[in-house]
Structure formats: C-alpha cells, structure tokens
Design a protein that fits this description.
With 113 residues, the chain is of the alpha+beta class. The chain has one domain: Arc Repressor Mutant, subunit A (Orthogonal Bundle). A three-stranded antiparallel β-sheet has the order 1-3-2.
Length: 113
C-alpha cells in the first residue's frame, strides 16, 4: 500500500477506536492495539507510538482505561490496558455520537446526488 493510500486518524476518533478495541479484545498493550487497528483497516491506518501512547495515558488519566504492567508473549515488559466501566459508558456515548455524525454525512452526500 502506497503512502497516499494510508489514512490518518480523524480528529476525535482515536479514543473511540482504542476503547472499542479493548472492549472487543480485552486487555492489550500499545503495540497490539496499533497492530489491531492497522489490521482491521487493511493497512490503511497506521499509528505511530507518538500518537497512540499519549492517547492511552490520557484515557487512563480520565479513568476510561486501567493500565497494569505485564509481560508480552515474547517476554517483554509492557503496560497492558483494559477498559473500565466508565470507559464502557464513554464508548456507548461515543458510538451514539459517531452514528449521528455518520447519518448527517450520509444525508449531505445524498443531497449531492
């Protein structure tokens, strides 16, 4: 996939993608989260750790994630993140907002007809 085919993260969507990933897969470390997002986007979305880790720290500070040190499958020390009850509530609200915005965009796009 060429660089022009790579997608950036829309502003405000990274938190929602991280919360959804953890709600689906359970506790994960940062590299695994980034790899999952790249996988589900077919390689179009690539996060650098300078974008992802500040988001993880922000979500943890807001009480939406809980981080604990653990060991990865290849025996490396890493911080594993899990979604909290507050994170699940935020995910539900974020999904509802995303659906509203997507409906507005669909309406606008169909007007162009």
């Amino acid at each position: 996939m060429s660089n022009k085919d790579k997608a950036g993260v829309l502003q405000g969507t990274l938190d929602l993608m991280v919360l959804q990933t953890l709600a689906t897969l359970g506790p994960q470390h940062g590299y695994a989260i980034a790899a999952r997002l790249e996988q589900v986007s077919g390689g179009a979305l690539q996060l650098n750790m300078g974008t992802l880790y500040p988001a993880l720290m922000r979500l943890e500070q807001r009480g939406l994630l809980r981080g604990e040190w653990g060991v990865t499958d290849n025996s490396r020390k890493a911080r594993f993140y899990a979604i909290t009850a507050a994170g699940r509530r935020q995910l539900g609200a974020g999904k509802a907002e995303w659906d509203r915005m997507a409906d507005i965009m669909r309406t606008l796009l169909h007007e162009q007809g």
